[in-house]
Design a protein that fits this description.
mainly alpha; 2 domains; two-stranded antiparallel ribbon; about 5% strand
């Protein structure tokens, strides 16, 4: 299903604090069956969200590049790792992570929302938005961040909240 980013951003503004409180509550006191519920809901979410109609993650966020990512991508582009870093990345203070200098991502084709290095993309991108993780609670801090950027994460939290309130 096509994602309407304007509508999504309005929903986020309206529900951000409600969803964050809900996720903090889950994190502190995870209910029995949360991981199983997440698995079921995730399958529903992907029937309702088409990432290629959105690409908000690529437009507004940056992945963290691992040393393996740097080697693989720079080789694919015919560059040295240092050339790749110098051209497109910066080293984040504190964490030392390599991140994109700017958004949208330099590898995003804005005409069709496709990644020009899809098969070599960073591991962080290939796992995003990290919904199907085994222990939902261990990834809650990530979901709290992603709920503002990713309609799939938003929809997952929305569905879990609705189901838990219905019980």
């Amino acid at each position: 299903m096509k994602v309407n980013l304007r509508s999504f951003k309005q929903k986020v503004r309206h529900n951000r604090s409600i969803f964050r409180r809900f996720m903090t509550k889950l994190e502190k006191n995870p209910p029995k069956g949360l991981d199983q519920l997440t698995t079921v809901v995730e399958k529903e979410v992907w029937k309702e969200v088409d990432c290629l109609t959105c690409a908000n993650c690529c437009k507004t966020m940056t992945p963290t590049y691992t040393p393996a990512d740097l080697k693989r991508i720079s080789k694919h582009l015919g560059m040295t790792v240092d050339e790749f870093k110098k051209k497109w990345l910066y080293k984040e203070r504190g964490s030392g992570d390599w991140m994109n200098k700017s958004t949208p991502c330099q590898f995003l084709n804005l005409k069709d929302n496709k990644c020009s290095i899809y098969l070599q993309r960073p591991v962080d991108c290939s796992g995003f938005p990290h919904l199907p993780k085994k222990k939902m609670v261990d990834w809650m801090h990530i979901h709290k961040q992603n709920v503002e950027y990713c309609p799939a994460t938003y929809k997952m939290v929305e569905k879990i909240k609705a189901r838990m309130e219905a019980e």
